[in-house]
Design brief:
Structural class: alpha/beta
Strand content: 15-25%
CATH topology of the largest domain: Rossmann fold
Strand order of the largest sheet: 3-6-9-1-10
Shape: globular
CATH superfamily of the largest domain: P-loop containing nucleotide triphosphate hydrolases
CATH architecture of the largest domain: 3-Layer(aba) Sandwich
Number of domains: 2
CATH class of the largest domain: Alpha Beta
Number of strands: 13
Distance between the termini: 38 Å
Number of helices: 14
Largest sheet: 5 strands, parallel
Length: about 325
């Protein structure tokens, strides 16, 4: 599909964009039967899935982060697994391992038993509770779409997406994610508290005898097809330039960098930031009914794409400056 979807074939482009919006809307509507509010978070998670990226959900306990990801797993006919990370978890616990089993002849043989990473949609719950060694095993699967066990390499079946959660408040027993791993996430979504009107709906759904059962309204083949549609969306050269300069403006010492950022930022976004901006912008353009990325798409997705790629130094933190403040300064 991506070979034939071009701006020179506007009818096919319109049809592809319409199908994309239809698939997105059906999944979103099904998830909304379980998740109350959090519309921006749901859209962000789905955007990461369609853009073939991973997403990090940050928020205090009780906001429905785990329920959101599991609900998406039910609304799409994908293999789903959940990993509850703990400090004593080892890489083999998530990748799988070779075990000695008995064969039909009564002898023994080594057989690989897959771990929870071998799935389409992986919920990495409280990812910052895992040790660096276990996080490295997860990093390989996120970047290379494969796992290594001994001298054996196993390719993971597409679509593959890691949706991780972490608690920003509790620090005891946690291992902060290294910048190299944070950079592998397409988005970092900050999950906030529900609106006042949503609390009543939450109470009625969770404190009564009624039970919501979600149905699969899409499947793996559809998700892969929609990923091709996203990749086929063209990006005008001036939009590419804007994306490049936006990311370069987060890097200290650059000619595009505002003076304030030179003082408070120690590490800016990497080239992956540009790639993620473009992919996220393509998804937003499709949802807005356009088959081309515009500058407004980049500016809309910039906070979710860049906030985890910017490291504020001690001076900035002492002044109360956050990565989101840096992004807003760049966008000005």
């Amino acid at each position: 599909m991506s070979d034939t979807l071009t701006v020179d074939n506007p009818e096919m482009a319109r049809e592809a964009a319409a199908e994309f919006r239809s698939v997105h809307a059906s999944i979103r509507a099904e998830v909304a039967r379980m998740i109350v509010g959090q519309d921006a978070t749901v859209d962000g998670v789905l955007a990461a899935l369609f853009a073939a990226g991973h997403v990090l959900l940050e928020g205090v306990p009780g906001l429905g982060k785990t329920l959101l990801v599991s609900s998406i797993g039910e609304a799409i006919d994908l293999t789903f697994s959940r990993i509850q990370f703990t400090p004593d978890m080892m890489p083999a616990d998530i990748r799988g391992t070779n075990v000695l089993t008995e064969d039909e002849a009564g002898g023994t043989k080594l057989e690989f038993q897959a771990g929870p990473l071998v799935a389409n949609l992986v919920l990495a719950d409280e990812i910052n509770r895992a040790t660096p060694r276990t996080q490295a095993a997860l990093l390989e699967s996120m970047q290379e779409k494969q796992i290594s066990v001994g001298n054996r390499t196993i390719k993971l079946e597409e679509p593959f997406c890691v949706m991780a959660t972490q608690n920003p408040v509790e620090q005891e027993g946690t291992y902060p994610l290294p910048e190299a791993q944070l950079d592998r996430f397409l988005f970092k979504l900050v999950v906030g508290y529900p609106a006042e009107n949503d609390y009543r709906t939450i109470l009625r759904r969770t404190t009564s005898n009624s039970e919501v059962q979600l149905n699969a309204v899409s499947d793996a083949a559809t998700i892969l097809r929609m990923r091709q549609v996203v990749r086929a969306v063209p990006v005008p050269e001036h939009v590419e330039t804007e994306a490049i300069q936006l990311v370069m403006a987060t890097q200290p010492g650059n000619k595009y960098t505002p003076s304030m950022i030179n003082e408070v930022v120690s590490l800016g976004a990497s080239p992956r930031g540009v790639q993620s901006l473009i992919l996220a912008g393509k998804v937003r353009a499709l949802l807005e009914g356009r088959f081309a990325v515009a500058g407004e798409d980049l500016r809309a997705v910039a906070p979710d794409v860049l906030r985890h790629r910017i490291l504020v130094n001690f001076q900035g933190m002492s002044d109360g400056i956050t990565a989101d403040d840096v992004i807003q300064e760049v966008l000005k």
